[in-house]
Design brief:
Elements (H helix, E strand, L loop, with lengths): L1 E12 L3 E5 L9 E11 L5 E4 L6 E7 L4 E12 L2 E4 L31 H8 L5 H15 L1 E2 L10 H7 L1 E2 L1 H14 L4 E8 L7 E9 L2 E5 L10 E7 L8 E4 L2 E12 L15 E4 L2
Helix pairs in contact: 1-4, 2-4, 3-4
Length: 281
């Protein structure tokens, strides 16, 4: 399915600084960037840096003191996702797991799976099928955590979200990741453009490594799972920040969008109970 995506951001530099932006659509075997443009007004020379594991495409550039800049990114992206039945799926023992996914098993800054071990096993440890286990914990998050804009900040962790029982999409994702890792299921943060998200913004959800593949989950249920264009993945939001700012540079405004560039879109959501999931690489 093809999508037209765009992001416009404005910054002002009170002193000279450096920006590292992470807004480009990722290139993967299941996501093709057909065309894209990246413009900074006034013009600044930029450098594209791709992570060693290919999980994001960062743009780095310097901004002079007293400068006001506008960043514009547009792209047409073709995504492919596959809906599969996971009824007969079995959990992969750690001894046979791909070592590349080990970083997504460990606690991280925002996903303290070690602190949520007992909660995770008391609530979901009895479920045998790993897909059903993750689907059920997402359902639990959706029912027990209120989606409340402005209720959290950049310091809020998964443990805080359990305590406060409120949050935004990044908090829902962090809690899902932490509970998965507590259950010995590798999980990673997913950030992207989202079709039908209101109000339009970047969106966060997560992927769980089940049956030797990454399967997408979103406890917020705000957007169709097949309406996402991936920007990056990482251990948590710290690895996938849209912008990292070095110096006295302030963010002034942002405009984000994701629209269909194709016909025949059929939205896909997880509904309980079901064992059909969406594989999205």
């Amino acid at each position: 399915m093809k999508f037209n995506i765009f992001a416009e951001m404005e910054y002002y530099a009170w002193s000279a600084g450096t920006l590292i932006l992470n807004i480009h659509a990722l290139r993967t075997p299941h996501q093709t960037v057909i065309n894209e443009t990246f413009i900074i007004e006034p013009y600044i020379k930029v450098e594209e840096i791709q992570s060693a594991m290919g999980e994001n495409r960062r743009i780095r550039f310097e901004i002079r003191e007293g400068n006001s800049i506008k960043v514009k990114y547009k792209a047409t992206v073709d995504t492919f996702c596959e809906i599969k039945n996971y009824e007969r799926l079995q959990e992969i023992p750690i001894a046979k797991m791909n070592a590349a996914v080990f970083p997504y098993l460990y606690p991280s800054r925002y996903c303290q799976s070690d602190k949520l071990f007992r909660l995770a096993f008391n609530l979901f440890g009895h479920i045998i099928n790993p897909f059903e286990k993750v689907s059920t914990l997402c359902d639990w998050i959706h029912k027990n955590v209120q989606y409340l804009s402005g209720s959290t900040n950049s310091q809020t962790s998964a443990f805080d979200t359990v305590t406060e029982q409120s949050g935004v999409c990044r908090d829902f994702a962090h809690l899902g990741i932490a509970l998965c890792r507590a259950l010995t299921i590798p999980a990673r943060y997913f950030t992207g453009y989202a079709y039908h998200l209101q109000p339009p913004d970047f969106h966060a959800c997560f992927e769980a490594y089940i049956g030797n593949e990454w399967i997408l989950f979103d406890a917020t249920r705000l957007v169709p799972l097949n309406g996402l264009v991936k920007i990056a993945s990482g251990r948590d939001a710290a690895d996938t920040a849209i912008a990292n700012i070095f110096g006295n540079v302030v963010f002034n405004s942002m405009n984000v969008g994701c629209e269909l560039a194709d016909n025949g879109f059929v939205p896909f959501y997880y509904e309980q109970p079901q064992l059909r999931g969406l594989s999205y690489l």
